[in-house]
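Today's session is about reading a structure prediction critically. Students often jump straight to the picture, but the first step is always the sequence itself: look for stretches that repeat, for charged clusters, for runs of hydrophobic residues. Only then move on to the predicted structure, which in these notes is written as discrete structure tokens rather than atom positions. Here is the chain we will use throughout the hour.
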Amino acid sequence: MATETKIIVRAKAKDAKFVGSSLGGAYIIITNKINNRILAEGKTSGSTGNTDLIMKVPVKRGNSISDERTAKFLATIDIDEPTFAQIKVISPFNNKQAQSIVSTELWLIPGKDILGDGIVLEIPGYIIDILKPRTHNYISLSSIKNKPFEIEANIVMMCGCTINKGGIWDSENIEVKAIVKRNDIHIRDVTMSLTETNLFKGNINITSAGQYELIVYAYDAKSGNTGVDKVNYVIYE
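Below is the predicted structure for this chain, in token form.
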């Protein structure tokens, strides 16, 4: 006879909070490793969690870093014998350019629930969205001649948590640069700075027409978090 077994799965951004409803959730797939049958699947829902509890209180063995509102996926699985399972997290589910897949494997025992914090999988990185220039934008050279060409990107943690100067996620600790290429040749790196919450800006003088590619990256040496976004645009005579 199959026995109902419950398991909580959470996705937590590296050096940040949990992935929940405000970001569209993380997608969870629990699979039987022997026959690849999906035992449960769905998205995490709930809040990103208690900032003080997650980021400020020293973690001690046995103490929880989640509360009742913290985002989770609760799976109820019917199994009749110990089952070796893979748990896969796809996150952030609604931001494809920043999406990562993280997984782990464990034995599920009939009737032996895994609750509390549950299984927590860590999602490294940043979500970066280049706002200027737009993808495949056609821009006349005359309209930008003798004036700075603006580069803008919105950057958040993988849980959607905000980046500010001097905040918990301090922009001063994050290196943000734009790599500019023209006709597949690297022409310049541009340092970008925070101008308001999550928004980084920089500029460059463009003097030649061509097929341009812009790569914006973020890097935190202390946490090891990285993120990238790319756009292509055209400067024409």
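Discussion point for the tutorial: The chain has two domains: 3-123, 126-236.
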